[in-house]
Amino acid sequence: MTRPAPVNDIDESTLKVKEPKKAAAGIPAVKIALERGIEQAGVARTARSLLRINQRGGFDCPGCAWPESITGPRKPAEFCENGAKAVAEENTKRTVTPEFWARHSIEELATKTEYWLGQQGRITEPVIIREGETHYSPISWADAFSLIGERIRATTPDRCVFYTSGRTANETAFMYQLFARSLGTNNLPDCSNMCHESSGSALNPTIGIGKGTVSLEDIHHSELIFVVGQNPGTNHPRMLSALKECKDNGGTIVAVNPLPETGLMAFKDPQSVDGLVRGGTKLADEFLQIKVGGDLALFQALGHLLLEEEDRAPGTVVDKAFIEANTDGFEDYVAARRHIDWTETEKATGLSRLDIAKVAGLLAKSKATIICWALGLTQQPHSVDTLREIINLLLLQGNFGKPGAGACPVRGHSNVQGDRTMGIWEKPKEWLLAALDKEFGITSPREHGVDSTEAIDAFAEGKVDVFVSMGGNFALANSETEALEAGMQKAGLTVHISTKPNRSHVVHGKTSLILPTLGRTDRDDKHPNGAQFLSVEDSMSVIRSTQGRLEPVSEHLLAEPVIIARMAQATFGDDHPVDWRAMAEDYDVVRDHISRVLPGFEDFNTRIRNKSGFVLPNPPRDTRSFATDIGKGRFTVSPLEYLEAPEGHLILQTLRSHDQYNTTFYGLDDRYRGISNGRRVVMVHPDDLAELGFADRDLVDVISTFKGTERRADAFRLVAYPTARGCAAAYFPEANALVHRDLVARESNTPGFKAMTVRFIPHEEKQLS
């Protein structure tokens, strides 16, 4: 039976803490996945969607970007627990109607948590709130688009900002960036700015591509896989199946993480007898519990030890033939890594020299190594240098362009990689702009736009007249929460293209529109030529189709490409070189344009109809070549850098709970960590709690310090947890308020969500006057 939306909000006083789980997935994952689907959407709707998720001819999971097999068969249940939860959130029969907005004022909604807002259901009609009003109220689509066009024409392009969520499909993203550039701005911040921007900043100059260089089959057949700064058991659980297959084929796995995440330790495959009735498969052969921010020191130490081993046994470790033919900068790298300060390295990493040497031995023997990473490495001041050091290790042993080897940045959100491929970027390359101009007869702007972090300043300085958010929840996704929310309320018009209520709708501009859109699972058939499909790109550069088949919850929903086209028509009128109507009516028209603009998409409309999709070119993987400015892979040299906390402080990182995807909360049960019914918690090693003079479950205010300034987040519960010493962890986005606007990764400008220096003070309840 379906359940109604919750009336009560989170009650942090009911927090429960148990022992962390020993293995991920298994029967509990199956049970919870089905329960969540049925309580949101009922039996029939849940069954119809789960049977099509990630299947050939079906729809792509709206959760993570982990790939499916291209050539082999797919499992009947080609989804994980959290994928099923993501689908349940979209399939829900709960609806947010005009009556909801009439009942709840902005003042009231501002007191609600993101969990409560998201659980209310799917938005059914467009709504507006004007300056001075207290409630959203209905507006027709025609009037909404007319208002958008009027406000855009009344300002200048540089005062318009177009944000993109990773959920956006390829065709939508292409039209969206075309709209912005037709208008005359590159203000195209996106969620990549806040997650894997550091990966692109490190990979493009060193290997000539900002994406991973491996396939799913490489994961299965690798000799050695590093999983670094990553929690696959929660954030992309189907990766556990791939790691298990690697183990079954004789591979070795090394986990590097500040927390002993359950998914890295053992996996109970719910689609196998062993996973259902036995103890499952041990995944990590070695676990390096590293300090937050110590990974650069670790990879430098590993490089040093590999060179030492090569000296002892020449020709057994370093692939000199590959290096001489394909790389540059090797001699400088060798000179830099010849010597190492082990005292400093152990301090930086929290690891012993013996533990590092043991893993170096595995690396020296491996002939096919993959290094995987996620946000644990990308959200620190020295993130780009850390990732370059990973590339050094891979180049050193020739781990590009051979089976089972390569770099693997694991993207979080489905199609976040595809959005960048389609041109969603504030710093576009000249070749892209020239191709757009030639194809459409426009003149694209050449001046760089604002990224997600720079948008905070633009809001604060009153430089945003129109803000359009294609999905997402910008207010809670970024740093400096309090300042960002205040800044967003200065904007003249905010436009949110959304499926469900979220915090950004509450901290809106002077005028705000919410435009309800179709989701991945919804049927998109209001077109002259019938039902349409879209495409996405996974973490391994595979382009595949996605098509929903469920009846939308409201007849008033529009597809995202249609919304973009109608905004453009309302802005530009009929006298514009781009035929927006044709693209909105038939997505094949969009794909034809893409095929002429973007390399690798030739004959797009034919190839996308292959039910397994197609793979984009990838020179390091395909031909062991590197499209850098020098035509070679580049070794780099970076100084040792790590995060240090002064006395009385810890280094805090943010992370997701198991019942969460980005700013969407499926529930309140972080099952693997044993934490439930609350989110305002800080996980701290018991010894650190004792040294700081606190006890388990103390209620504290958290103070972050950065360059002499402080940020504060009140009423967090301390939880004794086996984190790395000197480190702490709290949930995103509750702890985002602690991230100073200027605490960012150099070069990528990614917020330092894994780099906060914090202290605790006892929380005192504010007395009512």
From TrEMBL:
List the source organism: Arthrobacter sulfonylureivorans
What PANTHER family does this protein map onto? PROTEIN YDEP (PTHR43105:SF4), RESPIRATORY NITRATE REDUCTASE (PTHR43105)
Task: Report the residue ranges that make up the Molybdopterin oxidoreductase domain in this protein.
Answer: 122-495
Q: So which domain of life are we looking at?
A: Bacteria
Q: Which SUPFAM superfamilies match?
A: ADC-like (SSF50692), Formate dehydrogenase/DMSO reductase, domains 1-3 (SSF53706)
Where is the secretion signal located?
none
Q: Which NCBIfam families match?
A: Fdhalpha-like
Q: Cite the InterPro entries for this sequence.
A: Asp_de-COase-like_dom_sf, MopB_CT_YdeP, MoPterin_dinucl-bd_dom, Mopterin_OxRdtase, Mopterin_OxRdtse_a_bac, Prok_molybdopt-oxidoreductase, YdeP_MopB
Whether Electron transport counts among this entry's keywords is no
Cofactor requirements of the protein: [4Fe-4S] cluster; Mo-bis(molybdopterin guanine dinucleotide)
TM annotation in the entry: none
Q: Which UniProt keywords apply?
A: 4Fe-4S, Iron, Iron-sulfur, Metal-binding, Molybdenum, Oxidoreductase
Pfam families recorded: Molybdopterin (PF00384), Molydop_binding (PF01568)
Please state what the protein is called: FdhF/YdeP family oxidoreductase
Q: Which residues form the Molybdopterin dinucleotide-binding domain?
A: 650-755
State if 4Fe-4S is listed as a keyword: yes
